[in-house]
Design a protein that fits this description.
2 domains, homodimer, Phospholipid_synth_PlsX-like (chains A, B), transferase (chains A, B), alpha/beta, FA_synthesis (chains A, B), 14 helices
């Protein structure tokens, strides 16, 4: 039910995801009537792979996480996460209130043994491919041990999404020299250097795009600021491009002549492709879609959940963590 | 002497700055021969406003700040800052090693009374105008009091550069709600709310460009990451635009037809315009240029130094800080 657009986006997105993957089954959780209305007329072949689970409450986008957790025990969010807990679903995908989703997921699913705090990870478009970055906002203050655990989780996600055997891990810092940054990043660097992970050292903000690292590890404060800085800058540049191309009729001609270029760029950098941030470190798969996601965008978030569930990301995190044990003991 | 290109950039930039401002006088500090060679043939009207001060040493770009401070007492950097200290110069502009410049400036000039730590501030291109952001990397860990002092310094710089009577100040955070972030940003928010500054609350990464705030205050770790994230993303997008426009001859046509648009955008977002970060909080004006600056870029950094010196930024910071005294006592 969540997100800015509710089932009017999530239901068509579910149908689109079902169409693309014949083995996928989806349980739609929410208020019965609007969901049923939106399913009306869908292909029987798709409908046969859809279940409807009613939930009477809706967590609003500005509701406080702890309040949602306490008062909304029959919200679509809570019921969907309960389904993951009971094993009836392999992943929960939501466009709802991030804080409430994280608090509920953490309360119901708990963290994997050895992981203190879940983190939010997402793919970021880089110069030649992608970078995975975490934490993007779940934990504003982190210890060196947390950053180490983020590196383990990021390593698993990057390997599963791209088939990279040993993802290169960098810690975000304000310089590449070993002496840079505070004791948290320096201690985390030591933990990682002593681990079996493929740690490549400190990286800087521009390296998120340089392709130097497959996984960029940082605390949730810095990660969230960096992510929103990217969004803000990208929006400003796209806005400026539109303004310039529509300034006068001659410029329209330029836009027409540039159509193949603009279309390629739009396709290549379409933020909808990157929708679906994963809340890693939990015993189950929980994917957070952008609240403003459209159908294409939300279908991508479903796809992320599908891949993570198939690859068994939580189990793999647990395994990779155990392999590192000597380094963190 | 500093920067990636040394006097081959700084000397022509100085000549260009002198040409634009008839009241400007410049002392070039460095190795005599290369500087004199570059001045050869310059207009006598400009040469009459240039002084040459020899300095026998050069601080290299990868030299450790404390080592440069201890061992290079006759470096161009040190001599230039000494000139500010003695009153022979009103501002020092350098493209050299940032850490060494900061350490030397702090050692020689000291901070203004009431300012614990100098910070690096720069203009950032926003949707409709500019934002000033600090700290961009001088202090990776900051207290609430430091952030408060940054706000005072940012307020003075924004007012002086844009003539805004009461610059709107925001603290960078991971949400706009008062409960977001750690105790440092929350305590800083209380200090600012109780001050006479025009504090507007928490802002997020995308607000650096939204125009909501004139000054964005943050610690040097987050600020540096955000700044380099912008640089990395902008470079990636410009690179992609170039690649797409040169993919085949038809696309060249598109580029030609788009020439007015591309030229406008290039002019509007030219990073060279934004060169010249100020090391505020010191008793004198010290401007740091990008190490890779070209002549146009370095001339802009000189311009920043000129404006700050004329406005008397250090004195104004001291005055504005005194006005706030009741709030921080």
């Amino acid at each position: 039910m969540g997100g800015d657009h509710g089932p009017s986006v999530t239901v068509p997105a579910a149908l689109s995801a079902l169409q693309k993957d014949a083995d996928l089954r989806i349980t739609l959780v929410g208020l019965k009537e609007p969901v049923q209305a939106l399913l009306h007329g869908a292909e029987p072949g798709l409908l046969s792979r859809i279940q409807l689970r009613e939930a009477s409450q809706v967590v609003t986008m500005d509701e406080k996480p702890q309040e949602a957790l306490r008062k909304k025990k029959d919200s679509s969010m809570r019921v969907a996460i309960d389904l993951v807990k009971s094993g009836e679903a392999d992943a929960c995908v939501s466009a709802g209130n991030t804080g409430a989703l994280m608090a509920t997921a953490r309360f119901v699913l708990k963290t994997i043994e050895g992981i203190d705090r879940p983190a939010i990870i997402s793919r970021i478009r880089a110069r030649h491919g992608h970078t995975h970055m975490l934490d993007l906002g779940a934990n504003s203050q982190c210890s060196a041990e947390h950053l180490f655990q983020f590196a383990v989780m990021g390593s698993v996600v990057a390997a599963d999404m791209h088939g990279i055997a040993r993802p290169r891990i960098g810690i975000l810092n304000i310089g590449e020299e070993e002496t840079k940054g505070d004791s948290v990043v320096q201690d985390a660097a030591r933990l990682l250097a002593a681990s079996k992970l493929n740690y490549i050292g400190f990286v800087e903000g521009d390296d998120i795009f340089s392709g130097e690292a497959d996984v960029v590890v940082t605390d949730g404060f810095t990660g969230n600021v960096a992510l929103k800085t990217m969004e803000g800058l990208a929006n400003m540049l796209v806005g400026a491009l539109k303004t310039e191309y529509t300034r006068n009729p001659l410029r329209y001609v330029g836009a027409l002549a540039s159509w193949p270029v603009l279309r390629s760029l739009r396709k290549e950098f379409d933020p909808r492709t990157y929708n679906g941030a994963s809340m890693v470190g939990l015993t189950g798969v929980v994917i957070k879609s952008h609240g403003s996601a459209d159908t294409v965008s939300f279908a991508n978030a479903i796809r992320v959940g599908l891949v993570e569930a198939r690859k068994g990301v939580p189990t793999q995190i647990s395994n990779l963590l155990k392999e590192q044990a000597p380094a963190v003991a």
